[in-house]
Amino acid sequence: MAERTLLTNARVLTCTGDRHERPIAADVLIEGDRITRVAPGIEAGPARVVDLRGATVLPGLGDAHTHISWPLDFVFDHATVAAAPPAPHILDVAAVTRTYLESGYTFIIGAGTTQPMDDLLVKDAIDRGLLPGPRIVPSGPMIAEAGGLGGDGEIMEVVANAAELRENVAWQCGMGVRALKLFISGDGVVPEFPSEDVYMNDEMLLAAAEEAGRHGAFLTTHARGSASVAMAARTGVRIVHHACFLDDEALKALEARRGDIWVCPGLHYLYAVVNGHAEPYGITPEKVEASGYHEEFRSQVEGLHRLREAGIGILAGGDFGHQWTRHGTYAAELQRYVELAGMTPAEAVHTATRNMGEAAGLPLGQVREGYLADLLVVDGDPSADVTVLQDPARRRAVMKNGRFAYVNPEVYP
Ligand SMILES: [Zn+2]
């Protein structure tokens, strides 16, 4: 018989409700790796009973734009990380996945590796129980177009046409990659490649989407300008990262695929940069000015309001791992959604839970019968104050696959 665990005396934020949902008093029965019942006063029969003493249980959090290749002390030195000796580097990567798990994150979607096999190697070790870490939808090397941002090939794969892109996607999928990362716009932080630049074309993206689909994989794109967002939406991309600028055409293209496409903004990253948090690391006010990030930030905030009105799914996530958005502070993204994008705290939590499961097509992100028992136990109510998710002292435990994967040593002796 499968292992049975009964969580009692819990407040359950199920993430099955609307944007105003609040925790309910309930027990949660877990059998094997699944949640099998959520109700008050469950008589479970033989089971391991864990009294949560009034703590809140919610689904483990998810992040849809992760770079586990970036070590805990990463300072934007991509080329150095790419050239680092692989053996010590992969231990750095393992430290990052452990940090995700201990921060309450049980699910991550890769957004491009710096050494090609980083996501795949660590995922394999995690899945075999050798390392602590979240469930991973692995990415591989990012793909750029010749002549575009990343087209120097220093840390990315470079393709020139649809045939080469298809071949690269097939190669990555053959290794096990399931989230392809394509660069289809510039980025203000590299002024020679401004955000409104568009790289690749419909033919290339359609070929890539078809090839990915054959392997059960999906496309994600770095797309900051509105023309690149529109192209991503009309060619079958699953996750659009950044989407800093949205014109009517881009919004319409996204609306046409509502429920089949998600936007992952990375709002906290822009917030941190425009508020000077990167200044100690050489991103001077002059550089920020030159990047146009002030305007991108204003535009992204406005865009998020429009996306919400249009019912486009938003995913939490966003390039964490710089010293100004350190690993372990991932839930700051949810705080920005509440402060800047008009979300309720519960709605912000949904971007990291229910929406993640829907985007990945996996039964996770809800405390619900039949769903994977990936859970987070915290002191306090994230649907009243989402910042409780950022406090390590409030994080009591993390479950993955129905087992305790992290227990806070400060809380439980
Ligand atoms: Zn990124």
UniProtKB/TrEMBL annotation:
Domain Amidohydrolase-related: 56-403
Domain of life: Bacteria
InterPro entries noted in UniProt: Amidohydro-rel, Metal-dep_hydrolase_composite, Metal_Hydrolase, Metallo-dep_Hydrolase
Annotated GO MF terms: hydrolase activity, acting on carbon-nitrogen (but not peptide) bonds
PANTHER family linked: ALPHA-D-RIBOSE 1-METHYLPHOSPHONATE 5-TRIPHOSPHATE DIPHOSPHATASE
Protein's name according to its UniProt entry: Imidazolonepropionase
Organism encoding this protein: Thermomonospora echinospora
